[in-house]
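Priority: medium. Attachment 1 of 2:
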């Protein structure tokens, strides 16, 4: 592919982003999402009457979701004017998160908290000014950005803490009401990905505010999930926070588990955190041994966490991110092999079906809601190999999206492989991830493609710029904005929260601050024999499990692939 062709594809990607973003701003803002067929807005349904409405409600909160989720994409595309306008739109329509909305902790963390933190870091980066967006001034020139997004992020962070404070264990409830806390009828069920994919955003919030409680509880949850792993270092999907037992015994790289592995590795990179790196290496090694198709190298299967026997021959769309993670782990050649399965799926269906049966060679759920995972892996593989094949894949994806899913005011999800047609929904991740990774794939000269530092993209595709380096030590590896840190400071709590009980006694008890002060920093309990009651603060140094595990027969592979 010539440079001229690549730049035309880059510009076309930005054009399509503008089409979808403008459609949202024109027809939907300040609601959460655009309905791309009817060209109307969508916000949270107050009393959902269908399963579909309840599912959609998980990510909606009446807080201009698509706008917040798209902020750093505007910056990465170099659109300084619209980035500034978007920031002040957020500031004007979202004074706080004092909203009577029940939201999923995982979704609001990766979409809203991550979006606010990423945009704040870019907008306040007046020193290095890596993306050229700072200083950020309002369109009329009368206001200058002064940290308002960080204030909103902190307001949201405090509201999410109730999921940890009211939990019967160190793992948070999956949902909270932003105004009232955990609903009385809350389920004790969660999943490994939901509870274990909080650390990047919560740690960034802690490092920027010098209040350690956010990072502390996210690490605690990650360690709590990991402490219940099987003897062969596999974690399950569904988990009960009260009984501390697995409700789903399968593991793999797809839904319910996927981003748990991602955040172990990315926390190691972003926070310069050897503890997370140690956990990732153990978890990854076990996946390679017990879930990976060693005969062909194309798949990670869903296997039982105790026996490693095959449980489910499905390949789900979320797992398409894993080749990209393998690139970050240094296994580029193996990543290329795993990637091919998803490439052939896209060629066959012009999308990645939500679920594909590897044994029956057909889809079991053939919808495509504009997910980013496949193009995310395409981006990482091109960065690692510079193989023009991946640019051609990007061209194919972009052309298919335009041909099959573009509407008059945005882009619509495919429902049931096109048999039913398009559905009236454009999720925010299409702008925050799918088109962002396509743009960066074609924009080889983008500053982030040349950055040699420990920045990361979150699981929602939000850019977290490198944290400022300091010479002082910290309780967990990495850098903080100031050496003066506290667990939390009630004097700095957002005004809308000052009427709530902010003592966080359960969190403080679980963090074991008395043990920290006494210098007892290391957990030595063997997780295979633990009663499950030995809860430890992640910032106490974590734990290392050096026990040996019995050999388990490696899973047999299918005879052929897709």
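Attachment 2 of 2:
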């Amino acid at each position: 592919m010539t440079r001229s062709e690549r730049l035309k594809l880059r510009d076309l990607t930005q054009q399509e982003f503008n089409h979808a973003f403008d459609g949202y701003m024109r027809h939907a803002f300040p609601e959460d999402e655009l309905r791309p067929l009817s060209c109307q807005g969508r916000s949270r349904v107050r009393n959902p009457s269908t399963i579909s409405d309840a599912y959609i409600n998980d990510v909606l909160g009446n807080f201009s979701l698509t706008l917040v989720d798209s902020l750093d994409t505007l910056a990465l595309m170099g659109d300084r004017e619209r980035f500034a306008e978007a920031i002040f739109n957020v500031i004007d329509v979202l004074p706080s998160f004092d909203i009577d909305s029940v939201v999923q902790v995982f979704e609001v963390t990766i979409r809203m908290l991550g979006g606010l933190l990423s945009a704040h870091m870019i907008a306040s980066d007046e020193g290095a000014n890596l993306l050229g967006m700072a200083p950020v001034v309002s369109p009329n020139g009368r206001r200058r950005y002064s940290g308002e997004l960080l204030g909103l992020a902190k307001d949201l962070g405090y509201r999410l803490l109730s999921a940890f404070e009211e939990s019967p264990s160190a793992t948070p409830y999956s949902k909270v009401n932003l105004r009232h806390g955990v609903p009385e009828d809350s389920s004790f069920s969660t999943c490994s990905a939901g509870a274990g994919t909080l650390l990047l955003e919560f740690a960034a919030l802690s490092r920027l505010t010098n209040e350690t409680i956010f990072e502390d509880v996210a690490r605690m949850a990650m360690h709590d999930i990991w402490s219940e792993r099987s003897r062969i270092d596999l974690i399950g999907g569904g988990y009960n926070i009260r009984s501390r037992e697995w409700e789903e015994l399968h593991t793999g790289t797809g839904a319910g588990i996927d981003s748990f592995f991602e955040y172990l590795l990315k926390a190691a990179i972003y926070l310069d955190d050897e503890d997370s790196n140690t956990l990732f290496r153990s978890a990854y090694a076990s996946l390679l041994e017990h879930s990976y198709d060693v005969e062909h190298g194309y798949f990670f299967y869903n296997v039982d966490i105790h026996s490693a026997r095959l449980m489910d021959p499905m390949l789900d769309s979320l797992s398409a991110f894993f080749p990209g993670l393998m690139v970050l782990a240094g296994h580029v050649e193996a990543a290329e092999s795993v990637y091919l399965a998803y490439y052939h799926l896209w060629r066959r269906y012009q999308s990645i079906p939500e679920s594909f049966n590897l044994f029956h060679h057909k889809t079991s759920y053939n919808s495509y809601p504009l997910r980013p995972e496949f193009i995310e892996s395409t981006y990482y593989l091109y960065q690692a190999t510079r193989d023009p094949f991946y640019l051609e894949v990007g061209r194919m994806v972009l052309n298919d999206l335009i041909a099959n899913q573009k509407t008059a005011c945005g882009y619509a999800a495919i429902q049931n492989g096109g048999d039913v047609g398009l559905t009236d929904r454009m999720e925010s991740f299409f702008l925050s991830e799918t088109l962002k990774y396509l743009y960066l794939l074609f924009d080889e000269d983008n500053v982030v493609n040349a950055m040699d530092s420990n920045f990361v993209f979150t699981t929602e595709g939000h850019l977290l710029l490198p944290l400022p380096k300091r010479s002082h030590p910290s309780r967990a590896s990495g850098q903080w904005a100031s050496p003066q840190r506290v667990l939390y400071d009630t004097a700095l709590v957002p005004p809308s929260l000052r009427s709530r009980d902010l003592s966080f006694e359960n969190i403080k008890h679980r963090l074991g601050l008395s043990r920290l002060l006494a210098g007892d920093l290391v957990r030595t309990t063997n997780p295979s024999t633990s009663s499950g009651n030995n809860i430890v603060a992640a910032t106490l140094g974590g734990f290392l499990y050096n026990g040996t595990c019995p050999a388990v027969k490696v899973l047999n592979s299918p005879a052929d692939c897709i």
